[in-house]
Amino acid sequence: xxxxxxxxxxxxxxxxxxxxxxxxxxxxxxxxxxxxxxxxxxxxxxxxxxxxxxxxxxxxxxxxxxxxxxxxxxxxxxxxxxxxxxxxxxxxxxxxxxxxxxxxxxxxxxxxxxxxxxxxxxxxxxx
Length: 127
Description:
Layout: E1 3-7, E2 10-13, E3 18-25, E4 32-39, E5 46-51, E6 58-60, E7 68-73, E8 78-83, E9 92-102, E10 114-117, E11 121-126
Parallel strand pairs: 2-11
Antiparallel strand pairs: 1-3, 3-8, 4-5, 4-9, 5-6, 7-8, 9-10, 9-11
């Protein structure tokens, strides 16, 4: 059974940092791009960051570029999201996901391109 478990969320103040982790189990995700999405109340789920299967390329939404960094450790089947200079508008539930296509060149930006999802971790940034 494939399982993705996010951790690291919490309540912080504007300007603080958080590091989210997503541990995958049930099968290897070597060869698959992975991504982070977020969903704020009343809004659609949106792409935050993606990393290619080889870790050679990373992709970010404009709203987080320069503040967030995605990385992965294939040996641990884990993907991370380092979030710095957090803003109140970053408040959302954050989800990690695994691409449904193996050996994709680059990253997928649509949630429809991702097959497995974690349960989400809440990030709340107070002003």
